[in-house]
Amino acid sequence: MSAARKLPTELDVVVVGAGFSGLYMLYKLRRLNMTVKVVEAGSDIGGTWFWNRYPGARCDVESMHYSYSFDPELEQEWEWTEKYPSQPEILSYIHHVADRHDLRRDVVLDTTVTSAHYDDDSATWTVTTDDGEQVRARYCIMAVGCLSVPKKPEVPGLERFRGDWYHTCDWPESGVDFTGQRVAVIGTGSSGIQAIPIIAKQAAELTVFQRTPNFSLPTFNGPIDQDLVADIKSRYREIREESRRSGFGVAIEPPTRSALEVDPEERLRSYEERWQRGNLTGVLQAYTDLLADERANDTAAEFVRGKIREIVDDPETAEKLCPKGYAFGTKRPCLDTGYYETFNNDHVQLVDLRETPLVEITERGVRTSAGEYEVDSLVLATGFDAMTGALLNIDIRGRQGRTLKDKWSDGPALYLGLNAAGFPNMFTITGPGSPSVLSNMIVSIEQHVEWLSDLLEYMRRNELRVVEATETAEKEWTDHVREVGDMTLYPKTDSWYMGANVPGKPRLLMAYLGGVGPYWEKCQQVAADGYEGFALQ
Ligand code: FAD
Ligand code: N01
User: Fold this and answer.
1) Which residues on neighbouring strands pair with residue 299, listed in sequence order?
2) Are 260 and 295 within 8 A, CB to CB?
3) What ipTM does the predicted assembly reach?
4) Predicted confidence (pLDDT) per residue in 447-482, tens digit
5) Which residue is closest in CA terms to ligand 2's atom 15?
6) CA 391, CA 444: separation in Å to the nearest integer?
7) Model-wide pTM > 0.95
8) Which family does it belong to (predicted)?
9) Residues lining ligand 1, CB < 6 A?
10) Judging by beta carbons within 10 Å of its beta carbon (0-12, 13-18, 19+), is residue 186 exposed, middle or buried?
11) How far is ligand 1, taken at its centre, from the CA of residue 53, in Å?
């Protein structure tokens, strides 16, 4: 007897992914009385916050702002405990929201979507899962995450390694105790920088393999300030609105002056005061031109390098940790708790892979051009195939069977980061070409979900069944995304924003830098003009 099906054969909408995006999409579609299922590869909901359980995993947008705004009672009731929420706290928040709105009953877990094919005649998508089930749906919404496909280091030998190895984004649920072990960490991005201080506290010896040093600022994390909570809760609606209209999805006072027009002492005072705030936007938002002018940027970069030299006792190690040769902010900067201080411990050593490149993983550890480092456990904090990885892992075929992979061979193209010409009725949430990873993502997720739910309601009200970006609208938007990016320093840096961390990936800035507020206005205007740039039938 065959096992019971997990999915019905027909639905209005299939949503792929049960993180913040997929769950909110489900909530909105239910309110439209649409039949919908969310298909999730993981064994539970939560997305990023389900998978990334490495020690120290934490958000770097403050708790009061990294949360849904769609449920005003929830935002009054929910109590965050720390300034920056930890992974377990965010996951329990997601579980709470799912239970509060009874979302789980429409989520199908442990199931990977392997293909989605569009049929021109019926104007439906056939979605296939890894257990061979197929479901036909009018709409397919990809809530697959921008940072959900792990990337391993491009060196041979991992399968030979006799110890245990872990990727930060696929961490065992039971945790890992490194007590008494010799541990290696490869990678010093946000994940590595959060995990390293905690692993160092457990391990007998820790070796950190660094290819590119990162700019990292202290969180000064701690129990949440209750006066601040009361103040925010008393005007949450207003703050949420300001966030939606802001540059990066967090309501802050925008800078008004160039870094080059103030005298060096005043500049230093301003950077110091902002450093003490313990957030990402402080120093980077001090002046208008920090992300656009190299000389301006270097004033902030040198300030951070000065801090590293102050914190790290050994001058040689400090110099290795100092980021040089790229602009501060153009690789995602990190927030840490005691990262640079960790290198003042005798049992922690830093290996600079620019001096002695990684050669291979061996049975016993890690080999660089300088020799072999024997370890018991290996932690890969080597990041993600970001933005496009999860979409291109699925065999997506649009009109006339054209694959998304083929369409995107020179890089992703989507109108408004929402829909690709030739792929009708398929949408991405926080897709390439939207502010996405260059914003407080919850704000961007809510904006996309609400815009899509309005569109689907409009389609139904007007008895329409196919919506698709025109080639012209897609091209104009994609050119605009590039032009705005080219006005900044981002394209000059090799980063995952540019696809530069994955060999062979097209190199282009995948997120839209025009700002969350202006982007939101553009989307509103498109909808108000009868979905300008989309062909509807
Ligand atoms: P995800 O949470 O990534 O969920 C996507 C889900 O889709 C995953 O569960 C995945 O398993 C599933 N999926 C993918 N492909 C398939 C498939 N083919 N079939 C079935 N299921 C599939 N953002 C911020 O704004 N601020 C932060 O401080 C911040 N911190 C972060 C820290 C870490 C460690 C990471 C990795 C990301 C962080 N982010 C942060 C970005 C974070 O990804 C978003 O804020 C947000 O959680 C994304 O939600 P999502 O639902 O869009 O995607
Ligand atoms: O990944 P990364 P991540 N040999 O790509 C190195 C979010 N996030 O998981 O820079 C040697 O940033 C690589 O070196 P290089 C946030 O958006 C947020 O840390 O390519 N080294 C780099 O040092 C973040 O930006 C938080 O030269 C190799 C590291 O591995 C995004 O997720 C926390 C290598 C990868 O860094 C990704 O962060 C965690 C190789 N072959 C994540 N390949 C917050 O705090 C890669 N590296 C909110």
Assistant:
1) none
2) yes
3) 0.99
4) 999 999 999 999 999 999 999 999 999 999 999 999
5) 212
6) 18
7) yes
8) Belongs to the FAD-binding monooxygenase family.
9) 16-22, 39-42, 47-48, 50, 52, 57, 59-61, 66, 112-113, 143-148, 169, 191, 390, 393-394, 429-430, 440-441, 445
10) buried
11) 13
